[in-house]
Amino acid sequence: MFEWPWKDIARECELYLGPAGFSAVQVSPPHEHIVWEKHPWWERYQVASYKIESRSGNEAEFADMVKRCRRAGVDIYADAVINHMTGIPGGTAVGGTSFTHYDYPGIYDFNDFHHCGRNGNDDIVNYKDLYELQNCELVDLADLATETSKVQNTIAAYLNHLLDLGVAGFRIDAAKHIPAKDLKAIMSQLKRSAYVYQEVIYDPAGPISYADYTPIGDVTAYDYAHRLGAAIKDKKMDGLLHIGENFPASNDSIVFVTNHDLERTGDPYILKYSSEDQKLYRLAQIFMLAWPFGYPQVYTGYDFTNYDDGPPLNEQLRTLPVLSSQNQCTAPFTCEHRLPEVAAMVDFRNQTDGSFVVNNFWSNNTDQLAFSRGQKGFVAINFSGNQLPKEFQTGLPAGKYCNIVGASYNPNTHSCPNMIEVNAQGKANVVIQAYSAMVLLNRTTASQKKKAL
């Protein structure tokens, strides 16, 4: 829930996320961050101190959010920025802390950072050079010497404080810029178990591999979003049958249709909610949540015009509320996680987890596909602008089923006015409208295990 205030996340856990079956929420970095002109989104990724004070709220509000979300059955995963501090000469941070580029009173001084001596300004230029990647500065961000015991102990103390506040896990930002052995040493100091997943923007040409980081925790299957968008936009449906290839194992991978970085790139294959690709984006979410690969992450953010645009702030530099007094989403926040098909597919994901396989895969190899999940579920998606009339082998027992992503489906009663009949051979003869999907769920054999993030 990118850039949401803690108070709104707490309400959303209680009102929607918990009842919908989401397992967890990734929240924006909770540390104290810089204040910069026009307050870009990337302020949050420049660390001025490890105080829990940000434009999303203070420590008391953060702790209250964690408690209320956990009570609603939703864990909190904190976005942990531990590779670096700030990338500016100095200033006063959002919580009042004064700092300079290499001096953070009471935390770090000049000797706690790498000064790699390359490229005239210590910045990374060659991302395929392991030394530069892990010892030089990522766009001038002061690079912590994570091999030292002082830095490791300081970072571990910050993470343990978040654990004390009830956090259940961490996304490790810029993980590939931290040597895996350093991350392992830091994580070994955690006072209790936590779910760890690492941002690893992988390059097959090196110099790091997924296998360096999977012993520590899960990793982002970062190219998944591009592969998914490319298969859809280039009309090559059969490619989706192999979408998980060359990633780490399913139980080590985080997958997503987009995230806060990808939606700001110029990659034409990244699908975006607030764009002409919205119909394809929504169908891609259905595919990701239905396809048995990885731990799916549903993104929710806000509309923006320029790359740097941050969320709307008040005079105290706090993010304005997302939810109205009637619990409605307010612009520019998009709340795409509330789309009815998302809740239905989170339910589908949870209910079909016991059958983590694909059967009866079919596609026209351009813009239509279908598959079953054993005897637990069936999915057909029409990415085209034409109707899809077809008799499908659903793999389901004979009976009548609702299309759970259909407009007339009632998720509270699991009912619908126009049911779809599956015959004794497991077949259903249907017409799927343009840019729409049909998802059938066999609740008589359903189970609940892993959910969506």
Q: How would you characterize this protein structure?
A:
By secondary structure, the protein is of the alpha/beta class. It has helices at residues 6-20, 59-71, 130-135, 149-164, 180-187, 210-213, 224-233, 278-290, 340-351, and strands at residues 24-27, 31-33, 47-52, 75-80, 90-92, 98-100, 169-172, 195-198, 218-220, 253-256, 295-297, 359-363, 368-373, 377-382, 388-393, 399-401, 420-422, 427-432, 436-441. The strands form six sheets. A seven-stranded parallel beta sheet has the order 1-4-7-8-9-10-11. It has a four-stranded antiparallel beta sheet with strand order 12-13-14-19, with helices on one face. The protein has a two-stranded antiparallel ribbon with strand order 2-3. Helix 1 runs parallel beside helix 2, helix 4 (149-164) crosses helix 5 and helix 8 runs parallel beside helix 9. The protein starts with 5 loop residues before the first helix and ends in a 12-residue tail after the last strand. The mean pLDDT is 96.
Report a brief summary of the structure:
The chain has helices at about 5-20, 60-70, 130-135, 150-165, 180-185, 210-215, 225-235, 280-290, 340-350; strands at about 25, 30-35, 45-50, 75-80, 90, 100, 170, 195-200, 220, 255, 295, 360-365, 370-375, 375-380, 390-395, 400, 420, 425-430, 435-440. By secondary structure, it is of the alpha/beta class. The protein folds into two domains: about 5-220 and about 300-335, Alpha-Beta Barrel (TIM Barrel); about 360-445, Golgi alpha-mannosidase II (Immunoglobulin-like, Sandwich), CATH 2.60.40.1180.
